[in-house]
C-alpha cells in the first residue's frame, strides 16, 4: 500500500540530498525544527500544505515539481504508465504566455 507521507518524504529527502544540503540547512531555511523535518522526510509526520510550501521554498523548488514526482512514484507503484510529455491541451496556454485558469497574459 502506498503511503502518501512516505512518498512525499522520500522526494523531499532526495531533492535535499541532490543539492548536497544537510537537514540542518534546510530546516533553518524553512523555519521548521530539524527533528520535525527529519520525521517528515522519513514519512513519520504529515506535512501541512504550509509546511510543505516552506520546505519547497527552502529547497528552491516549486511545490508542483515535488508533487509531480510524488505522483509519478505513486503511478509506478500502481502499475500505471507515466507519460513523458505534457499533453498539448495543457501546454498550449503556457507556450503562449497565458495562465491556464484565467487564460490571461502573464505579467
From TrEMBL:
Ranges where the HTH cro/C1-type domain occurs: 12-66
InterPro entries, per the entry: Cro/C1-type_HTH, Lambda_DNA-bd_dom_sf
Molecular function GO labels: DNA binding
Domain of life: Bacteria
Alphabetical list of Pfam families matching this protein: HTH_31 (PF13560)
SUPFAM superfamilies found in the cross-reference section: lambda repressor-like DNA-binding domains
Protein name stated in the entry: Helix-turn-helix domain-containing protein
